[in-house]
Structures are given as structure tokens and as C-alpha cells.
């Protein structure tokens, strides 16, 4: 006669998320947490880039903007600075 109870599997199922709403909530929580980390990092980098970019303007302005290439670089940096100000404006705001 054969024993009808299955033998336990040597592999664990700890890596498999529980089925049902708990697994969905855990996945949503992980996604939300990753999104918050990415948002915070982006705001941090944008804030400090917005603070530091004006120091790059100084040599350009000291040289003068008579050269079309220098003018284009200055306007590009100014546009990037405006974008970083917009993205980073809420960094460390309560």
C-alpha cells in the first residue's frame, strides 16, 4: 500500500508573495516606496544643480557673450537652471 500524504518539498515558498490582497498591497507599497525614493533623489539633485549652475555662468559672463557659441552655451545653461529650479523647488519643504 502506498502512503497518500505527500512528502514535504525541500524548497521553501518564502519568496512567493501571499495570494490575495496582501500581495497586491505589498507590491503597491513597494512601488510607492520606490517612487518616493526616486522623487526625493531627483529633487535633491535638481535642487543642488540649481544652486551650483550659476557658478558656471561667471566665467562665461566674464569672457563676454559676444561669441555666438558662448551665448548659446549661456542660454542652454540658463534653460537647464530653470528646469532644475522647477523640479527641485519642493526639496526639504515640510
TrEMBL record:
<keyword id="KW-1133">Transmembrane helix</keyword>
<keyword id="KW-0812">Transmembrane</keyword>
<feature type="region of interest" description="Disordered">
    <location>
        <begin position="1"/>
        <end position="34"/>
    </location>
</feature>
<keyword id="KW-0472">Membrane</keyword>
<protein>
    <submittedName>
        <fullName>Uncharacterized protein</fullName>
    </submittedName>
</protein>
<feature type="compositionally biased region" description="Low complexity">
    <location>
        <begin position="1"/>
        <end position="15"/>
    </location>
</feature>
<feature type="transmembrane region" description="Helical">
    <location>
        <begin position="44"/>
        <end position="64"/>
    </location>
</feature>
<dbReference type="Pfam" id="PF26071">
    <property type="entry name" value="DUF8028"/>
</dbReference>
<feature type="compositionally biased region" description="Polar residues">
    <location>
        <begin position="16"/>
        <end position="34"/>
    </location>
</feature>
<feature type="transmembrane region" description="Helical">
    <location>
        <begin position="70"/>
        <end position="88"/>
    </location>
</feature>
<dbReference type="InterPro" id="IPR058341">
    <property type="entry name" value="DUF8028"/>
</dbReference>
